[in-house]
Amino acid sequence: MRSFSRTLRVKLENDIDYLKFFKHINKSFRNLQGIQTSGGGKYVELYFDTFEAEEVAELRGVDFENTHYELTPLGQRLVFVSTFIPIQFPDEDLLDLLRIYGNVKSVRRLFHKDPELNHLENGCRVVAFTKLDKPLPKRISYGGISVGFKYTGQPNSCVKCLSFDHEINECPRRKPKPKQNSKQDPKPENNQPTENQPDQAPRETDTPNQSENQTLNETQEKPEPLIVEMDTAETHSRKRKVVSPPDSPIKSDINRAKKTNPLNHHEEFISDLKKERDSVKLLKSPKDLVARARALFLHQELGNVDKADTKTLSFENKKQTLRIWASFEHKLRPDAKAELMLLFNNNFTNNYG
Fold this sequence. Notes:
Elements: E1 8-11, H1 18-28, E2 32-38, E3 43-48, H2 51-60, E4 62-64, E5 67-69, E6 72-73, E7 79-84, H3 91-98, E8 102-111, E9 121-132, E10 139-142, E11 145-150, H4 206-221, H5 224-241, H6 249-258, H7 266-273, H8 280-283, H9 287-302, H10 318-326, H11 333-347
Antiparallel strand pairs: 1-3, 1-6, 2-3, 4-5, 7-9, 7-11, 8-9, 10-11
Helix pairs in contact: 2-10, 9-10, 9-11
């Protein structure tokens, strides 16, 4: 009895040429054993004879007639996050930034829909998560660049301190608007003539009127100390704004991801990546980081995953490592070496210090 690995499913457009699509699929993937339609022709299901081939196909997806189609395992639900970021920002840096929030499957750039502009990017990318470990805020700042996120079920968050406990209008770090000191000129009393009042008041009343005006002027000068207190309070508010709040775990994660440590014990780190079992120093780091480091090392040494004999390789967390390795299809070996060194400097130097 023939056995198959997990089935990959792709949802197609209504007016697609199935025969042409099947021929394209057959040329695009190795170790393909079967193709069939389901759901009344809305879906196409693909079967592979090896788990590694299925993993590579899932990561790549299908590009057919200027349209990219995601290949999704049956029963798996993906979370698609619309990401708004400058076009020149590299996809690799975006993936490194988002891995602290969950398992990232792929990132895809979107283009303008107008036929005359469909070769130009529109600044939006769709990032597919197989799992979100923690929610994404609406906006973060990374290396001086503003990055926006939007997805279904996204909780409200404060764009100033990145907290999910409140929004911007309730943020304690928000600078309060200074109260305006409303000085109103006192309306003179009994100085303007009225219909029932003569143009000139008797001279005997000049003295009491002057006394009243002097008293009124003294009263208007009293709010002056309040202005000094308000300025002092505003100054304290500006000083407090510089201090980072203790309840900002997301921002601390980003700062930790951006931090660069000096190179230390890099050769020992490479030696541990070659071993079948992770060393004690590697076990101190998250599994996804170790898998990415080992995938970069394998790509640096062997090239693309489809040209390597993966059956002869033995190491821990092999499934995730092969998935990440497959995503480096268009990455040059020197680039993989440079990225591996940067990954070591940012995340592993404390373990090997």
